[in-house]
DNA sequence: TGACTGTATGTCATATTCGACATATAGTGT
DNA sequence: ACACTATATGTCGAATATGACATACAGTCA
């Protein structure tokens, strides 16, 4: 089972915090998945807060509704770059990004 | 002139802090470039601090010396994903990443 | 029930990013 | 001068992420 496949499973059913002991993910892989999920949560929270639909956000970042849905679900085919660009498009500053990554 | 080309120029000669008024970068593009440069700086600082060569870091992340050099120079062909993975490989926690992105 | 709105998921051709390699540049020591 | 080490830069075929599309699912309203 390849790492990308495992990552896909992880981001699906289970909370990652509880999933560390599952499957043979290296600590680095876990950290990256957790990072992606933090950004995913932050993105959804920001979008909802602004009362935008996924379609509206997609338009703002020149993407598509389906990709936004994948962003917010932590889908491993979504790059951190795209998550960052989307957050920035929603007005997030570097400090906002820092808070999303490592909440106080 | 395409945005990626402009980004390449920006990351070369000039400090971005001074380059906002150059070229027609949108605020979002500037923010993304600044983010990439913060990560680039953070990566180099961490690597040097650990007294590793670019070749050694490359081995740790299964990449190549040339790509590490590009990472550290903020080359626009380097993804934020790769920067994040490299920082994590050097032991950076989410909190460390947050500090790199938005220093106190 | 059906129509409508918003979100989720799978697939695919294209675009972007990848590691690898060659080669250039800079510094250090002999 | 040469040899050696570390870093920078350009290129390329292969790998990965992309937007777009179809379609499924869930909730709401009439």
Description of the structure:
The structure is a homodimer of 104-residue chains. In chain A, 63% of the residues lie in helices and 0% in strands. By secondary structure, chain A is mostly helical. In chain A, helix 2 runs parallel beside helix 5 and helix 3 crosses helix 4. The termini of chain A are far apart. About 10% of the residues of chain A have low confidence. At the A-B interface, helix 2, helix 5 and helix 6 of A face helix 2, helix 5 and helix 6 of B. The first copy, chain A, binds a DNA duplex (30 and 30 nucleotides) through helix 3 and helix 4.
Task: Break the fold down into its secondary structure elements and pairings.
The structure is a homodimer of 104-residue chains.
Chain A: H1 3-12, H2 27-49, H3 54-60, H4 65-72, H5 80-89, H6 94-101
Helix pairs in contact in A: 2-5, 3-4
The structure holds a DNA duplex (30 and 30 nucleotides).
């Amino acid at each position: 089972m390849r790492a990308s496949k495992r990552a896909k499973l992880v981001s699906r059913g289970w909370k990652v915090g509880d999933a560390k002991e599952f499957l043979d993910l290296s600590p680095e892989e876990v950290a990256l998945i957790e990072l992606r999920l933090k950004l995913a949560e932050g993105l959804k929270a920001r979008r909802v807060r602004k009362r935008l639909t996924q379609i509206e956000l997609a338009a703002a970042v020149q993407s598509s509704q389906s990709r936004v849905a994948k962003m917010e679900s932590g889908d491993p085919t979504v790059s951190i770059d795209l998550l960052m660009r989307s957050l920035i498009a929603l007005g997030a500053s570097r400090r906002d990004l820092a808070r999303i990554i490592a909440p106080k």
